[in-house]
Specification:
Elements: H1 29-45, H2 52-74, H3 76-80, H4 83-93, H5 95-103, H6 107-119, H7 127-143, H8 148-152, H9 167-179, H10 183-199, H11 208-221, H12 225-237, H13 243-269, H14 291-294, H15 296-305, E1 321-324, E2 337-343, E3 348-352, H16 357-367, E4 372-373, E5 376-377, E6 384-385, E7 390-391, E8 393-397, H17 403-416, E9 426-431, E10 436-440, E11 458-465, E12 471-472, E13 475-477, E14 482-484, E15 491-495, E16 509-511, E17 514-516, E18 519-527
Antiparallel strand pairs: 1-2, 2-3, 3-15, 4-8, 5-6, 7-10, 8-9, 9-18, 10-16, 11-15, 11-18, 12-17, 13-14, 13-16
Helix pairs in contact: 1-2, 4-7, 9-10, 10-11, 11-12, 12-13
Length: 543
């Protein structure tokens, strides 16, 4: 029997516009300015609140909002590069604002507060952003195999620290997972919330009754009936004010007694010992993976993202670094480019220092106002759709937008010796918190996601890396085990098609989740039309 949580009080978040902030950092900086304004307004409410306890809580919240806002605005990019900071920012604008509003003890103050929220509706994180940033944290936790405690105490990377997460912060993640029937992550974070609550002093960040209520059901979902009984009795000892809660938990205890009796009878019949209620066994928490996440390719993808060497490079001793003028191209004679070979067959190259800081800032400035959540092509309908396996924001820049884009395009052509007539525009992508692109091909395969006949298939990919990423964010090739680090100013290049025009199956690649930092890239896809004399076929039909 599985008890369904039907009667718990649910926190309902304030509704803002759909901003999709969680997918990138570029639009989150505005929220920091708004938070500073909120702190000032909340301080002005304090003397107007009649109830002393509520007034003190609002004063404390206003002080915290102001302290965090002032600190974060000193170095906004560094602050938001930390996924825990970004999570807390979204939480303050959603779940925490609900609490703030309820503390205002007059309709007049609540109306003023609602007006303040409405003023910034379009630029503030909304509930979808909050849900998205939680999913990002869970994605990072799974991909990089990070225990909850390392997020809680801010030590999830070697060079980034964040403030300690409260019991309330942990609870919201556990609640989110529970509401999505993800009992594995729910139990991890609810248990962490209990541990954090034990460490909090006089001011506790959340209601223990609510926390234990969720935890009991999460434990039952994973078959931990003894632990559920333990916490259910703890909850009743707290004497909840709501009689409905008391009756429901009492019924849960009766059900648990019956289930435990059945389990013990089975143990006796099998000759196994019966656990003692005062000595709890280890918590069982099994993660159920989808077929995709259990597949060999996805396992390789996550291992590569963690920096593991999953297969030997057969060309390791043949790889070299050198300067190239691309067969004497006039644009490169006086400034040859630095090339690092990463793999052969397919050729995967990393060009160093091929875009300047000034050009990077120009590209960012041109693209930021038009960034939109990235889409993928649905092979069933041919339409562009949002997808959980590609989490980023992107925009397209064309040569006609600015002469800097023309210069960048000419440089790619000079280095690769490819004609840019049929090439796509420069796609600028910002991967924010947990931003990723799971394993995929860039070229069309077997007629799927076909391109116009005036372009033909994507013959090659060029990726400019426009930021240094503190942790994560590698481009990885799952078929050959290559890991490309996102080095600012560098560019990766590879051929998607063989010389005979067929796709190269070894070019399947992915963008790993960004663990810390903000990853900016610019993609340039060159198509096969126009390359007949630039990259001709050989006499070998298989090449």
């Amino acid at each position: 029997m599985k008890i369904t949580l039907t009667c718990l009080w649910m926190l309902s978040a304030l509704t803002f516009s759909h901003a999709e902030i969680f997918t990138a950092m570029a639009t989150m900086k505005k929220a920091l300015d708004i938070e500073q304004q909120f702190a000032v307004e909340l301080k002005s409410y304090v003397p107007l609140i009649k109830d002393k306890v509520r007034s003190e809580k609002v004063a404390r919240l206003a002080e915290e909002y102001g302290r965090v806002a002032n600190l974060s605005l000193l170095q906004p990019e560094a602050y938001l590069a930390n996924p825990v900071n970004a999570y807390m920012l979204c939480k303050r604008f959603t779940a925490d604002l609900k609490e703030v509003r309820e503390l205002l003890d007059s309709p007049h103050l609540q109306q003023e507060f609602d007006t303040l929220i409405a003023t910034h509706r379009a630029e503030a994180p909304d509930r979808e952003d909050f849900d998205g940033v939680i999913e990002a944290l869970l994605r990072l936790q799974d991909t990089y195999e990070i225990p909850c405690i390392r997020f809680v105490d801010g030590t999830f990377t070697s060079d980034v620290n964040s403030p300690r997460m409260t019991a309330s912060d942990c609870f919201e993640i556990g609640k989110h997972a529970y509401d999505r029937k993800d009992s594995y992550h729910s139990l991890l974070w609810l248990l962490e919330s209990v541990a954090s609550l034990e460490m909090e002093g006089t001011y506790q960040s959340m209601d223990r009754v609510l926390l234990l209520d969720y935890l009991i059901y999460a434990l039952i979902d994973q078959g931990n009936n003894y632990h559920a009984m333990h916490y259910a009795q703890q909850l009743l000892d707290l004497k909840p004010a709501n009689p409905v809660t008391v009756d429901r938990i009492a019924s849960v205890i009766d059900w648990l007694h019956a289930e435990i009796a059945k389990e013990n009878a089975t143990r006796l019949a099998e000759g196994r010992p019966i656990p003692q209620l005062d000595i709890l066994p280890p918590v069982s928490n099994k993660r159920e993976l989808s077929a995709k996440h259990m597949g060999k390719e996805y396992v390789k993808y996550e291992a590569l993202c963690r920096g593991e060497d999953i297969m030997a490079n057969p060309y390791k001793h043949d790889l070299k670094c050198y300067y190239s003028t691309s067969d004497g191209n006039p644009l490169l004679l006086l400034a040859p480019v630095k090339v690092e070979e990463l793999y052969k067959s397919p050729d995967i190259l990393l060009y160093h220092d091929v875009i300047s800081d000034g050009e990077i800032e120009m590209v960012k400035n041109l693209s930021t106002p038009i960034l939109k959540r990235a889409t993928v092509n649905d092979p069933n309908t041919g339409r562009l759709i949002y997808s959980s396996y590609r989490v980023s924001r992107s925009s397209w820049l064309y040569d006609r937008y600015h002469e800097a884009i023309v210069t960048i395009t000419k440089r790619i052509s000079a280095i690769t010796n490819l004609d840019m007539t049929s090439a796509e525009g420069l796609q600028v992508v910002n991967y924010g918190i947990g931003g990723q692109y799971e394993p995929h091909y860039d070229h069309s395969r077997d007629g799927v996601d076909g391109f116009p006949v005036t372009q033909g298939n994507r013959v090659a990919t060029w990726i400019y890396y426009m930021s240094d990423v503190s942790a994560g964010g590698y481009t990885v090739f799952t078929k050959v085990g290559v890991k490309v680090p996102p080095i600012k100013g560098a560019a990766a290049f590879w051929w998607n098609l063989k010389r005979n025009g067929n796709g190269d199956s070894m070019t399947k690649h992915a963008g790993c989740p960004v663990l810390s930092g903000s990853k900016w890239v610019a993609n340039k896809w060159t198509h096969i039309i126009g390359q007949e004399w630039r990259r001709p076929c050989t006499l070998n039909e298989h090449e």
